[in-house]
Every structure is written in C-alpha cells, then in structure tokens.
Amino acid sequence: MAGGRRRRHHFGRIHAFTCGKASLKEEHSLIGGPGFSRKVYCNDPESATASLLNYGDNYVRTTKYTLATFIPKSLFEQFRRVANFYFLVCAILSFFPVSPYSGVSNVVPLLVVVAATMVKEFIEDFRRKKQDIEMNNRKVKVHRGGGDFAYSKWRDLKVGDVVRVEKDEFFPADLILLASNYDDAICYVETMNLDGETNLKLKQALEGTSKLQEDSYFENFRSVISCEDPNANLYTFVGSMELEDQQYPLSPQQLLLRDSKLRNTDFVYGVVIFTGHDTKVMQNATDPPSKRSKIEKRMDKIIYCLFFLLIVISFIGSILFGITTNDDIENGRMKRWYLRPDDTEIYYDPNEPVAAAILHFLTALMLYSYLIPISLYVSIEIVKVLQSIFINQDEKMYYEETDKPARARTSNLNEELGQVDTILSDKTGTLTCNSMEFIKCSIAGVAYGRVATEVERALSRRHESDSGQELKENKNIAKVGESKSSIKGFNFKDERIMNGNWMKEPNANVIQNFLRLLAVCHTAIPEVDEGTGKVSYEAESPDEAAFVIAARELGFEFYERTHTNISLRELDPITGLKTQRSYKLLNILEFSSARKRMSVIVRDEEGKLLLLSKGADSVMFERIAKNGREFEEMTKQHISEYADSGLRTLILAYRELSEEEYHRFNKEFTEAKNLVSADQEQIVENIIQNIEKDLILLGATAVEDKLQDGVPECIDKLAQAGIKLWVLTGDKMETAINIGYACSLLRQGMKQIIISSDTPENKSLEKMEDKSAAEAAMKSSVIRQLREAKALLSSSHENYEALALIIDGKSLTYALEDDVKDLFLELAIGCASVICCRSSPKQKALVTRLVKTRTGSTTLAIGDGANDVGMLQEADIGIGISGVEGMQAVMSSDIAIAQFRFLERLLLVHGHWCYRRISSMICYFFYKNLAFGFTLFFFEMYASFSGQAAYNDWFMSLYNVFFTSLPVIALGVFDQDVSSKLCLKFPLLYQEGIQNILFSWRRIIGWALNGVVTSAIIFFFCIRAMEHQAFRKSGEVVGLEVLGATMYTCAVWVVNCQMALSISYFTYVQHLFIWGSITFWYIFLLAYGAIDPSFSTTAYKVFIEALAPSPSFWIITLLILIASLLPYFVYSSIQMRFFPMYHQMIQWIRMDGQTSDPEYCNVVRQRSIRSTTVGFTARLEASKRFNASKRVGSSTRSETASNHFETSRRLEASKRPEGTTEDR
C-alpha cells in the first residue's frame, strides 16, 4: 500500500432487513409509561418545552473526588483504617493533661503521614481528571441553525442536538442514526470499547430520515422522539419517532452508542438522545472489585495483634501503677515522699487509686503507641507505586509490534504476583494470536495444503523425544515454520492448486465453485489502494478475512461491492485468463452462534440462482442432499485430521434454486422480517431452514489460530516454578486438546480424563420430553464420571503418573453445582493439567471463584476479550492481554501486558522481587517499632509505671517519620536477593512465594522476638552501664535527658545497621538512606538542642555539653550496636550454613561463580518443593524415564537369560546384604 490513497467502494444493503420496520408492538406500547418517559425534541434543544425537561449535560466525570469533596472524602478514607483512627484519637488526647507528651509533637507525624497519602490520592485522581478533560474537550460538528454545522466540544452537547460524525471518529453521546452518505442510510460501527468485539456492526436509519444527506437539509428538520429512560442494557432500545405526523418505531438498529467508532462510512447524521452519565456505556460503568493481597490481610492481623499487645501491657502497667499508688500513703506515712503523694492531682492520688489507674491506662495507650508503625501504610503505598513504575518501564515486557508496554493499572497487588499458585487462562487471543491463517483445505475429497501447523510440529517433536532423541534448545520448541508466508492471513502452500494449477485438477469445476463460494459468501468490505491497486479487506472476524484473502490468492479476487452486487476477478478455466464477473446479491442469511452458519443467495451473470453456504460440520452435514454426499467420507476424515492439528474447520456447500422456489422463499422471508410478533425470530429461522437444505458438498476449510511467540517456553518455566495452569476456552474439545499438546500441557503417555456430554447416552437423554428427568440423568452421569476419575487419580498417585482433566461446558454446568463442585475441584487439583472446553463467560468466572475460595491459594486469570472480564474480576489478580479483541479485558484488569510470554518475567522476576521486598519491609517495620516501643515499656517498669517517657517528645515523634523510614522504603524498592537472569534460570525460586516462606507466622514472630531482644539489650545495657557511673568530668551521674538520648542513639544505630545486614543488593540510594538517616539524627540533635529550652526541653544542648565530650557515650553506642546485632548475625550464619533457603543456595553459587556449572545448578534444582508435571521439560524427563525403563527392562531380560545357570551363586550372594547392594 506504499503511499497510495485508499478508495473504498460504497455499498449499501448487504444484510437482509428492511429500513426501520422491524419492531414489536408489545414493546412500543410501553412508551409513555414508567421507564419509557423520555422525550427528545430533535434539532430544537433550546426550546422552552425541551428546557423544562432539564436533562443532564454531556460532561463525563470518572474522578473519585471533586474540588469540594476531596478533603472530606480523602480524610474519611484515611481514618477508615483502624491504625490511623487510633493515631487520630491519640493526637486529640495529647492536648489533655493525660498525655505523656506534647500535643504538637504527636500531631505533626500524623499530619505528615496523612498528607503524603492525600498527595498520592490527589496525583492519581488528577490523572483521571486530565483524561476526563481530554475526552470532554473532543470536538464534533453540531447543527447551529440555518443548515450550518460548526465544531463544538463534546461537553457542550445537549439532548436533541443534531451532530455530524465523520469516518473513524467516536460517537460523542448516544445517538439515533438519521442518515449517512449511503443512499439507504446504513453505517458500520466498531464497538470494541464496549464489548471487546472487533467485528463491525451494521446500523441503518429510518426510511423517513434516510434522505437527509446534506447539511442544508437540516435547516427545517424537526421531530419528536419518545423512548425508554436511561438504562444499562447495551443491546435493547425501544422508542418511536414522530416525523411529519407519522410514527416510526425505533430499535437498536438505529442506536449509535457513545465510545463506539464510525468505520467504513464517510459520515453520519444523528440526534443526541442520551448524554453524559445517562449514556449506556456510563450506565454500565462500575467500579472494579476491591482487591487486597494476602500479605496485606495478614499485615492487618499483625496490627490487631500489636493492638492487643498494647492493650495488655497498658492494662498490666495501669494495674501495677494503681497498686503502688494505693500503697504510697499507709497509716499517714508516705513511702515515696519525693513524689508528694499528699499534695497531688487525680492523675496520681493515693486516695483514689482506681481513678488514677484508669487515667494511667489512657496515658499508657498513648505512650506505647510507638508499637504501631504510623508510617507503615503510607510507606507501603509509596513503595508499591514505585514498584509499579519499574514494571511499566521494563523494556523486556515491551511489545514493539503494537507499541504496548506492560502497564500496572493498580499497585495494590504487586506482592501477590509473587504468590500465584494457579493460572486460569483463556485460549484464543491469549495463548494464541487470534490472527487466523488459511493453511489447509479439503476440496472434492482431496486434501490440499502442505504447511505444518503448530500442533503438527509439536507432535513431531513429541515423537522425536519419545523415540529417544533429545529436544533441541528451548528457543526452537515452538518456532514458526520456515515456510511462513508474507501475506497476512494466508499461509497456504500447495502447487497443485496455486498459480492457477487447480484448472488441471480432475475436479476443477468443484474447486472453481469452492473458491467462488469463498469469494462471495461473506460480509467483508473491500478497500482498494489507488496507488498500487491492491485490495485489502475489513471483515467481521479474522476467519472471514482469511477466507477472502485465500480466494484472492488462489485466483478469485473480490474487489468491489455495490448496493446489490459483488464483483470478482476470477480465473476462467476455459481461457485461463482473469475475467470480471458480477453476482447480484439478493439475500444474506446472517451467521449467529445458534445457527453456526451463514448463507448468501446470489444471481450469477447467466441468471442462475445460487445458495452459497458455509458453517460448522455439526449443522452442515445434516443439510447435505443425498446426491451431494459424494465426498462426505473423505471430507469427514480430513476435518477430523484438521481438528487433530489444532485447526478451525468450516464446511462449504451450495445448491441451485429455481425461480419459483426463490420467489416463494423471498416473499415469506420479507413478510416474516416485517412481522410484529413475539415469536418473529423463530418464524424467520424456520423459513431459512427450509431453504438451507439439499446442499451439495464442496469441501472444508481449515484455518489456524497460531500460538503466540514464546508460549510453550513460558508455560514450561511457570510449570517449573510450581504454578498450575488451567485453560478455560469456548473452543471445542478437539481444538483445545491439540493446543494443549502444542503448549506441552499435554504429552504422550499422560492419561487423559475426559468428562464429556457428547456421548450416545447423553444424546439420547437430550431427546427425552421430560427435560427435568433428562437433566437429572445427565447430572448423575457427570457425577459417575467424576467418581471414576477420582478412583483413577488415587491409583495414579501411587504410580506417580501425571493426569490431565478435560471437561466440556455442559458437563461443567453440573460439575459446578453446589453438591458436586467439591468433588470436581478435588479431582482437578490432583491433575497436572485442566482444560475446560466450550466454557461460557459465566462458567469461567465460576471456576475461578471455586478455585480461589475453596483452595485459599492465589489465583491469576489472564484473557483478552470481553468474555474474560468476569474471570479477571473474580481472580485475585486479573491480567489483560492488550491484543486484537478490544480493550474490555484490559480495562477490567489489574495489570495489562501485550503477550502471554511476558507473564514469565512478570511473575518470576517482578512478582518474586515484589513479594520478597514487601515481606521483608513489613517484618522490618514491626521489628524496628518493637525494638523502640519496648524500651519505653522497660523504662516504665524501671519508673514504677509512672507514665514518664524515656525520650524527648520530638525524638519519639520523628522516629518513624525521619530516622528509620527512608531505609525501609529503599529496601522495598531496590532490594534483590538474586538477579533477574537467575530468577529465570532457577524458576523454583518462585516457590518461596507460593509457600509464603518469607512472610510466614514463624518468620514474623522471629522478627518480633528479634525486636524485643534488641530493645532489652539497648535498655538494660544502658541502665547498667550508666546508672551509677560518673558521666561528666565534674562527676555528675546520668540524668533522664542523657539516658534517653543515649538509648535513642543506640536504637537509631541498631535498627539502621540491622537494615544494612538484611539487604542483599546495595545501591547508592540505600547507602545514602541508611547512613544518611544516622547522620541526620546527629544533625537534628545538634540543631534541636540549640533551640530555646522552653521548646527543646530535655534535649537542650545535651549532645554538645554531655554526650559528645563523653568517651563512654561512644563506647556504649558501639558495644550495644555489636551486642544487639550479634544474635541476628549468629542465627543467620547457622541458618545459611546448615539450613539454607533456596535463594541463599543460588546466592552461594553466584558468589562462587558457579552459575554456569551444570552440576552445581542441578544440585540446586533438585531442592524443588514440587515436581514439575507439565511443560516440555517434564515431557523430556518423562521420555527419558520411559526410555531408561525400557533399557533396564531389556538388559534385565538378557541378563536373566544368559545367567540362568548361576542361580545357586546368586542365592548365596543374596544372603549378604552389602554384597547385594554392590551387585545391584
């Protein structure tokens, strides 16, 4: 198409309907009643009557907040979290005398944390706001009176406006089609943004408005539309138009929905009926389900545990405080006279110890609040956003062909990517390309096409491996054949019918009819490049485009469609030259999922009436005439072979019609189409069935939906990582099974458990008149098959055999019922592969829900079409493939990627890293807060639980915000236990996430104990070292201000150095944050200590005058640092030396430089927690075991035959166990 301008051939009526007449009286009788009260004054939106209706404007808002609601709503969202609400209560109480610290010092950290989260919310919502502004400011031509159209913003449209939409523009609101550039007022609409379908929908205006094809015609146009009220149903519409005192019924055929696109039509005129949030697409807009990761849910439990701990120690402290307070005055004698218990307030009153204890309880709740990490939530949110940015910018997940990078649409589930146990995948467009290629065909009982399919190559590799030949390198496993055609949609090679050679074949006339049918029986739209003259096609489906392209390449080029004609350039078998022929298009009998076929009725240049039909074999063979079955047996054999090769097949047939027969059909068909009756569709279908019979079989087509690049390798890596893959597809069983072989989900020798409703027994049940009895019998049949399979599963476990479960849609319906689903799930979990065929979108979602809820494991659903939306939203993680089936799946997903193979890196690299980082980050957060909080508790014990804080107010307030928070954020963003290359080389590393090893209760409790031990070492070391020791040159002993500052310094050093020990991968940022936090503490102590003592209180010049000059301060800090880190260091050393975790083993061989040594790598791989049962690696291992067993068996037999005479010696040797072992 180099540089040429496309010329599109105009055409009109290609579908069998009459302009705007099809409607139901019952529906239109509802107009004016409840739910059908909308009135639209067309081309007169400013009239007084229209203004009174007060319909909404066309402004669409998708933001979470407005300028007025941002602060209150955002604050409400913040304080819904129990931790933040607790800190808010503490902040309020801090201004009362019960507080152990000043109010300002407590409020500032809370404000910082809440403000940081609100800023994040503001930025995310502002992005949505910019998208809204961009959409609302798009422009469209609107009638401004006098027949003049001028550009106006979408947001300014009103109900009743007449707009002109140009080709490839989106519709700005819901419109009623008035006219188009075509004489019969048709247009083509792409609804990809609405339902994910790429096929074009045909719309047609009413006959009364179809002549309004010029701007000037609208000068005096007036009409009133009465219709249904706004609703969410995309596929129904009821209304009527009053035009020149006549009523015209309106149907979905005239409705153009917002966000759909005008295609293959120069322009249309339409009147606005629904605007803004009244449009059907906005009525369908729902917030995605709120998803939270399992780590986040466990983190909430830890927070609750810490709350419980806080309450317990506060309760214990308050009881002890009440007891000691009660004993302070005994018989008029004061025990602690220095506290003046005879002259005090209620907070310390020996005469009212209960009240004092209660008030102390409130004080303790505030004092020990540092056990709860105030910055935890905001730190995690910041880390997750930064992790999402790294995912989005990963060049190795960027698909250059479509210019689509990976896109994390939510950051809430990053760590969940590292814990996926089961993947539930769509097939078409997800595992495969959804790009059909014509690859084989059967004509007149002869099979044509020599190109090997993906499945045939997989079968060939499988036979090679089973015969003892080892597989080549992984990258060659699913490589596309070398003979790949450069023509998109056409990968056919067979010299017998290419280049016009079909004319030399014995059945040339059948081949001619076959190719002609391909070129005529369709609804494709030709586009001719005027520069090159080459024809391309817009088709309703990839299959149909492949058929038309195949016909063109084999000599029957469809190049033009007019109102009533289809024009071809076809090879003449007599002259051998291309001739132009025209076929008059009389009727199109459309394809539907119920009919499973489509037909056209045309008249050729010789006057013959031809019915051309193509459809599924299940409905076509029964329509073949007795005298048209000449090639039936061979054709059935060929389509069976094609299905085995993973190809989609269609049967092609035709027949000639007599004039009388056609006229009778056409009369009945036209009357039925215009019939006003509830059973109109069934009447039409009966009439069509009467004409689609007695066909003559021509042959069958076979198109391939190829596997995406890298799918087998990706599945193999995921299987090695211990992830199970279930395939949920709407395709028939044979195709799904063969794709399973191509992906190595299935292999030879793997027992297949097939649960199918397509059995003679079930077919006879379907014919029963008592449908309830038939359903009960079919359900019992499914249960019986499941139980038999369960018994087979039990025996296979004893023999260590891998099983595959394959179930069809009808059987799945019964398997998902409440009393059967547990049996089904138990069977499915025990199988290595699960393939669900003929699954509906609802069944996909139900299977996903079943796996998620009953197993408790993390599920990931991946798909590319609108039919996968339910599955994506139901799973813990939804991955949308941004492919060719629209954006519906992507818009409903949590993460979008362009190719299935990117799932390998997303899970094994980013998933593992994010899981490890978030787990380590949360554990460290609780460690550092326990290490700090328990020093306060120990000091309270030392101070008789008086409520006196060990530290200065601002020291405590800034501990979580400044001195320890940045290093933990750096850990969450940058840390790596192993590199991305090693993550992919050792996929078993991913099992640490599946088993939740890094965030188990054992690990959490271990870090908590480490924190308690650290706090004990810091407090008791400082107390014992400084209690009676002269601290200054003048001999003064340590006061509270010096003790508090020393303990705080030790805490800052210990928790930051503990972070340095925990990190596996240092960057400059981590060095800066860790050592910078420690340095900042000293700078802060200097600066804060220099402020007036009325503000700095106990910190006034404490560093300059007391701490810095004292050698014991520096020695104590060093000794406490070593003592605090020593338990962790000893434990880590023993654990890594004698009980290494999987990532530590990989770190070992990396540090030793042995990552390329096969022997070392094999030792590490043998640590697998779960054996690999699918993928080509498992297939290769299975074939090796099979061949080894054959060799052992044959050698045993030969040895037995040759050494039969040595029986007595062997019997003697068997009495010696060690010798027997050696012999073996």
What's this, in brief?
By secondary structure, the chain is of the alpha+beta class. Helix 12 crosses helix 13, helix 16 packs antiparallel against helix 17 (about 680-690) and helix 21 (about 770-800) runs parallel beside helix 23 (about 820-830). It catalyses: ATP + H2O + phospholipidSide 1 = ADP + phosphate + phospholipidSide 2.
Describe what this molecule looks like in 3D.
This protein is α+β, with helices and mostly antiparallel strands and 1224 residues long. 46% of the residues lie in helices and 16% in strands. The strands form seven sheets. Strands 17-36-35-34-18-30-33-32-31 form a nine-stranded mixed β-sheet, with helices on both faces. Strands 20-19-29-28-27-26-25-24-23 form a nine-stranded antiparallel β-sheet, sandwiched between helices. Strands 4-3-5-14-6-12 form a six-stranded antiparallel β-sheet, with no helix packed on it. The protein is elongated, with a radius of gyration of 38 Å. The N terminus and C terminus are likely disordered. Keywords: ATP-binding, Magnesium, Membrane, Metal-binding, Nucleotide-binding, Translocase, Transmembrane, Transmembrane helix. It is found in: Membrane. One of its GO terms (cellular component) is plasma membrane. Belongs to the cation transport ATPase (P-type) (TC 3.A.3) family. Type IV subfamily. One of its GO terms (biological process) is phospholipid translocation.
